[in-house]
């Protein structure tokens, strides 16, 4: 089973996160931020990764540490659960519509961390959530997972729709990249022999 559990305790956040890469998209999320809960629910459902997250963070300051540290923990858990990445497809991509928003996401689970985030979000906040934290979340996530992630907004005006489209598109791309390809017969998808 491709599963992992991460316990991450700092002076800013206390996080318990567990996941199953071969799940059905079941989730139980309590991040302390309603909007981030909603985005992680979507992430789980559309990636088919079973995900449980509890976070007690310094939300009296803002949601920065909560978003960043959950991104770190999620990336660490996916990296651990994927193991040596034998047999995975490695690459995933999608152009995903979300009402008027259109989002491109592409993933290479090749061991090199990189984020290209090209998605202007019109509003500074959605509810109490600072929209600049979307990039912070995915920067932390891509670094700790060791993956190459491109996110590009092709169209969109509504900040909620844009962010929702981003989380769904990344989830679908990850699901594709982490899927086991039977044709690989358990091989590492790299000429290096390791990822």
Kindly describe this structure.
By secondary structure, the protein is α+β, with helices and mostly antiparallel strands. Helices cover 34% and strands 31% of the residues. It is built from four helices and ten strands. It has helices at 34-47, 64-82, 133-145, 159-178, and strands at 3-9, 13-20, 27-30, 50-57, 91-98, 101-108, 114-118, 125-126, 129-130, 148-155. Strands 1-2-4-3 form a four-stranded mixed sheet, with helices on one face. Strand 1 (3-9) and strand 2 form a beta hairpin. Helix 1 (34-47) runs parallel beside helix 4 (159-178) and helix 2 (64-82) runs parallel beside helix 3 (133-145). The longest helix is centred in the last third of the chain and has 20 residues, at 159-178. The mean pLDDT is 97.
Give descriptors for this structure:
single chain; 195 residues; alpha+beta; four-stranded mixed beta sheet; 4 helices; 10 strands; globular
């Amino acid at each position: 089973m491709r599963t992992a559990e991460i316990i991450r305790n700092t002076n800013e956040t206390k996080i318990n996160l567990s996941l199953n890469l071969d799940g059905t998209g079941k989730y139980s999320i309590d991040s302390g931020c309603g909007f981030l809960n909603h985005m992680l629910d979507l992430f789980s459902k559309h990636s088919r990764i079973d995900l449980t997250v509890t976070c007690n963070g310094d939300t009296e300051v803002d949601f920065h540490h909560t978003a960043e540290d959950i991104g770190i923990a999620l990336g660490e858990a996916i990296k651990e659960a994927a193991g040596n990445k034998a047999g995975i497809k490695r690459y995933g991509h999608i152009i995903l519509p979300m009402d008027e928003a259109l989002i491109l996401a592409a993933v290479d689970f090749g061991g090199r961390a990189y984020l290209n985030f090209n998605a202007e979000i019109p509003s500074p906040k959605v509810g109490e959530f600072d929209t600049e934290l979307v990039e912070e979340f995915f920067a932390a996530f891509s670094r700790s997972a060791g993956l190459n992630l491109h996110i590009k907004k092709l169209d969109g005006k509504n900040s909620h729709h844009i962010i929702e489209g981003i989380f769904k598109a990344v989830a679908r791309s990850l699901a594709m990249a982490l899927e086991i390809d039977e044709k690989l017969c358990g091989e590492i998808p790299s000429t290096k022999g390791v990822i």
